[in-house]
Amino acid sequence: TPLSRSVSAGQVVAVLDAREIETGLDAARAAREEARSGLPEVENAIAAAQAQLNLAQSTWKRMKSLHDQKSITAQEMDEADARLAMARANHEMALAKKKQLEEKIRQADSGLARVSLQKGYAEVTAPFAGIVIERKAEPGMLASPGMPILVVEQAAGYRLEAAIEEGMLSRIRPGAAASVQLDALDKAIDTRVSEIVPALDAMSRTFTAKLDLPASPQIRSGLFGRARFTLGEREALTIPAAALDREGQLERVFVNDNGSARARLITTGARHGDRLEVLSGLTAGETILVGVDGRLHDGARIEVRP
């Protein structure tokens, strides 16, 4: 199956060379037919033995009646006993041969089923719908039990595994709300924590939180992403990130002061999307100038247009 090809659940993705299995399958079929072919002969033998037994039993009854009447000799009665015993033995032998043949047929059926099952393994099918992302074997290679042939990535069911510092273990629980930002996407994904791995990584002192992601043609395994967790709410003063002007270690913005641009040194905190939290240097309600790109200076006259 070519790489990046979509496959459906149960679709054949690889076929193994089954010529040796086909030979075994033909031999198993022949053994079963040979065993079954002897069944009519055994049935006829049983019928014949049963007829001989019935005759011997009828003859024995007549001879017994004559013997009781002293009409025949003891020798003749012994001969009747022997013929009855022989008929019974022949009948039991015929029944035993049938049982042996039935066991042989059962073994042949079992062998055929086993080889047929092996042939079924020659066709490798996709366990679920997805995309072939890696081919582990090439035509002509020797396949062995446990050897991977293809890697199929499920079409949905992606997860982000986030490493979180151990101090947050008591605050992040399964079901906690989170926002995921993948570098391959230009938007945040709202999701929830589906699983917390209780074991900590001894080297990094972090634990792993698993977050389910929605199905999307842009999502692939191996992508890098970041998770933000909502642990509480507080009021914060924020500005557009584009309004910030950095000069070395200094951070400043320009505000509109009655038609003049005034520079304000500020201290910023966390970034939330395209906005920055302001820790100091501004008060709520001030008008920020955005997109100045270093073209303003403190005290410059500005014109505000609607």
Polypeptide structure, described:
This protein has 306 residues and is an alpha+beta fold. The protein has 3 domains: 18-121, Helix hairpin bin (Helix Hairpins, Orthogonal Bundle); 157-229, Efflux pump adaptor protein, beta barrel domain (Elongation Factor Tu (Ef-tu), domain 3, Beta Barrel), CATH 2.40.30.170; 235-306, conserved putative lor/sdh protein from methanococcus maripaludis s2 fold, CATH 2.40.420.20. 31% of the residues lie in helices and 30% in strands. Strand 13 and strand 14 (260-265) form a beta hairpin. The chain starts with 5 loop residues before the first strand and ends in a 26-residue tail after the last strand.
- Tally of DSSP β-strands: 16
What's the helix count?
Answer: 3
| Helix/strand structural class | alpha+beta
CATH architecture of the largest domain: Orthogonal Bundle
In CATH terms, the superfamily of the largest domain is Helix hairpin bin
- Report the major sheet: 5 strands, antiparallel
Taken in chain order, the helices and strands follow as EEHHHEEEEEEEEEEEEEE
- Oligomeric state of this protein: single chain
Shape: rod-shaped
CATH uppermost class of the largest domain: Mainly Alpha
Can you tell me the number of structural domains?
3
| Helix share bin | 25-40%
The termini sit apart by: 60 Å
Low-pLDDT segments: none
* Share of β-strand residues: 25-35%
